[in-house]
Amino acid sequence: MLKSIVFSVLLTGFGFMVSSCSSISKEECQVGDWTGIGHRDGSQGREQKRFYSYVEDCGEHGVTPNHDQYKQGYEEGLKVFCTPDNGWSVGRSGRSYNNICPPHLAKEFMSQYRKGQKVHQLEVKIRNLQQDINATDNEISVQEKALLNKTNTGADVLLIGAQIDKLRRKKLDQEKEIFKLQQEMQRVEQGG
């Protein structure tokens, strides 16, 4: 009895996982708003070849998607996606670009995409350096605690003190690097 319940639960879960992998729902296939689906894909920056997964998935439900309607909606959707402002947003978020914008929209989109991407890369570097600073701070704390050990000899104190000084210089260098990166990020954000 317990085995059959567990098996049913697993089978239901597997069925759900398989159905959730579908690129489009049965209902969307049957409604057939291919212009709207194309517009959604274009405006979200998806590749047009996604249509072929719809052909496969809807075919399982006896529905044939309309490529002309999809393409018309897709091209309209690209006008929403391929704007300079969106290029900035896509680049800044670190998302990849699938080279889908038509030539008359691609130039301005790509100009802003590259700037947004540069800011994203700088933000990642700054975050990594901030993590390095936290690690350096932890190392300094460990060394400062070691300095308080009563069994230290004079040589130990000098050695630990030198290590603390070295770590503080390292932290200062990391902070200077963050400042440089922040200035570079401001230049990019201001159009430079």
Notes on the protein architecture:
With 192 residues, the chain is mostly helical. The protein has eight helices and no strands. The protein has helices spanning 2-20, 26-31, 34-43, 50-59, 67-81, 84-92, 103-147, 154-189. The longest helix is centred in the middle third of the chain and has 45 residues, at 103-147. The protein is elongated, with a radius of gyration of 28 Å. The model is unreliable at 1-20 (pLDDT under 50).
Set down the secondary structure blueprint:
Layout: H1 2-20, H2 26-31, H3 34-43, H4 50-59, H5 67-81, H6 84-92, H7 103-147, H8 154-189
Brief description of this entry?
This protein has 192 residues and is mainly alpha-helical.
What percent of the residues sit in helical stretches (DSSP H or I)?
over 70%
Described by strand count, sense and barrel closure, the largest sheet is: none
Mean pLDDT across every amino acid position: 87
The ordered string of helix (H) and strand (E) elements is HHHHHHHH
The DSSP helix count reads 8
Q: What is the CA-based Rg, rounded? A: 28 Å
Number of DSSP strands? 0
List the uncertain runs: 1-20
Shape: elongated
Q: Give the structural class.
A: mainly alpha
